[in-house]
Amino acid sequence: MTSDPIFVVQLHDARRLHYDVRLEVDGVLKSWAVPRGPSLDPTVKRLAVFTTDHDLEYASYEGVIADGQYGSGAVIVWDAGIWTNLTRDDRRRPVDPAVAIERGHLKFHLHGVKLNGAWAFTRTGEDWLLVKVRDAAADPALDLTVAEPKSVLSGLTIEDMATRR
Questions:
Q1: CB burial class (10 A; 0-12, 13-18, 19+) of residue 38?
Q2: Which of 11, 92, 127, 151 is 20 to 30 Å from 158 at the Cα level?
Q3: Over the stretch 7-57, which tens digit does the pLDDT of each residue have?
Q4: Does 162 map to a domain?
Q5: DSSP 60
Q6: Is 158 helix (H, G, I), strand (E, B) or coil?
Q7: What is the Cα–Cα distance from 98 to 162, expressed in whole angstroms?
């Protein structure tokens, strides 16, 4: 029996504050750094930079990565849950998530504490865009990055975590 793949969004205060959106694919967390975080507005396209894969164990990591190490700075789990692949080919057949990423377009549904509904990552040259799909969970008036700043695991803000150095 296979369980649903997980997702996590970690708020990371490294060189610049950003949101790491990570989706479990083939036993690893495929990762995109989204500088301004996810938007619930389907008209907003957010820059997403594809980054290195992370081990699944990293999905629950919160803490402060020491100075001098890759990604040094505070990290909180801003959101977490499971996700469903919605990517289809021209004949409406499911496309494997790894293949979809390789081809440059992954459509998915998040079932999280904060983020719900359909989203898409689309490659545009070297970078990617993260866009909210128009659905019942879309809400152009709500900015969750402002309204919901705390970790879904610890209840800490990124500022709280940074003081734990």
A1: buried
A2: 127
A3: 999 999 988 999 999 999 999 999 999 999 999 999 999 999 999 999 999
A4: no
A5: G
A6: helix
A7: 34
Q: CB-based burial of residue 163 (10 Å sphere; 0-12 exposed, 13-18 middle, 19+ buried)?
A: exposed
The domain total for the chain is: 1
Residue 158 domain-assigned (yes or no): no
Owning domain of residue 129: 6-152
Distance CA 23, CA 8 (A): 7
**Which range (7-16, 28-37, 61-70, 149-158) has the least confidence?**
61-70
**Between 165 and 159, the higher pLDDT residue:** 159
User: Does 137 reside within a domain?
Assistant: yes
Residue 165 has pLDDT above 70, yes or no: no
What residue has token string 């150095």? 165
116 touches 38 (CB < 8 A)? no
Contacts of residue 106, defined as CB under 8 A and 6 or more positions apart, other chains included, come to 23, 85, 87, 97, 100, 120, 121
